[in-house]
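note to self: dont lose this again. the chain is below, predicted strucutre after it. 154 aa total, dont forget to put it in the shared folder this time
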Amino acid sequence: MAFEVNWQSGEGLLGLDDPAEWDAAFERGEDRLGTAVIGLAFQCSLEEASPRIVRAMQLPDRGQQGFAFTAAGHAARLNGELTPELYAALRAEGPGGIAEHPIRDTLGFVPFRKLPPWFKRRWVLVTVRNKLESWWLWSGQTVEDIWRRLRRRS
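---
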């Protein structure tokens, strides 16, 4: 590791590149494990970071859980895939809560062919909903434009 990590202040945690140090901090019960797991997602391979991200998703502190889910989203962005354990953890949490943004990151950055079946169904749902919303907004704008033109004529 190029620099020292301070678990009390949180300084250097986003640069954490040693999974063994994260494991030792987990055993000690450190407070900023969710923040540190983001560093692992950035610095380590997906195979090294994945089990630690999943463990951080189960931390008692909801804020640190949020950081762990953020790490899953970053892993999807950086690697273009996730491990089966991360897919399972995101599915277990479900959309609409703390996992909403990581699920959307996964749907946006992981190729459709690499998604498990639940995520493929979610991708179809989100894509159809987005298309319908865009049509609705477009039609509303069109009606408004027509109304404005008709009012100018009278």
